[in-house]
């Protein structure tokens, strides 16, 4: 009886360890895939943005990460569809940022 309980405990422990190892492997794979996607995005951005524009986008990312991510995705999509024909400089990036910010910004008003 005691031996049976010990055997059950060992089996359960082994199952839990196996499940944990599988979860860790899945998380590592997801992280690796996300890193690959991010590397591809950054490679495209290096191709289409001037150094000044890339620097501005990095600064925006520090302050408003969601805005910077939206701009990055839009720029990558435009590049992939062939709609970007020349490099985007700092001035053009400012305009893009302003347009996207205006579309996504929510105003909060407090009424008394």
UniProtKB/TrEMBL annotation:
Pfam families to which the protein is assigned, alphabetical: dsDNA_bind (PF01984)
Keywords: Coiled coil, DNA-binding
Top-level lineage group: Archaea
Keyword Cytoplasm: no
Coiled-coil annotated spans: 11-47
Matches recorded under Gene3D superfamilies: PDCD5-like
GO cellular component, one term: cytosol
Molecular function GO labels: DNA binding
InterPro entries registered for this protein in UniProt: DNA_bind_arc, PDCD5-like, PDCD5-like_sf
UniProt KW Lipid metabolism keyword: no
Family of this protein: Belongs to the PDCD5 family.
HAMAP family referenced in this protein's UniProt entry, alphabetically: dsDNA_bind (MF_00026)
Protein name per Swiss-Prot or TrEMBL: DNA-binding protein EYH13_02940
Species: Thermococcus paralvinellae
């Amino acid at each position: 009886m005691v031996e049976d309980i010990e055997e059950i405990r060992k089996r359960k422990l082994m199952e839990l360890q196996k499940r944990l190892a599988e979860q860790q492997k899945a998380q590592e794979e997801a992280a690796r895939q996300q890193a690959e996607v991010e590397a591809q995005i950054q490679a495209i951005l290096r191709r289409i943005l001037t150094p000044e524009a890339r620097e501005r986008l990095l600064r925006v990312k520090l302050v408003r990460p969601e805005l910077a991510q939206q701009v990055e995705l839009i720029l990558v999509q435009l590049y992939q569809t062939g709609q970007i024909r020349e490099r985007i400089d700092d001035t053009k990036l400012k305009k893009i940022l302003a347009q996207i910010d205006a579309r996504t910004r929510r105003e909060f008003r407090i009424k008394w």
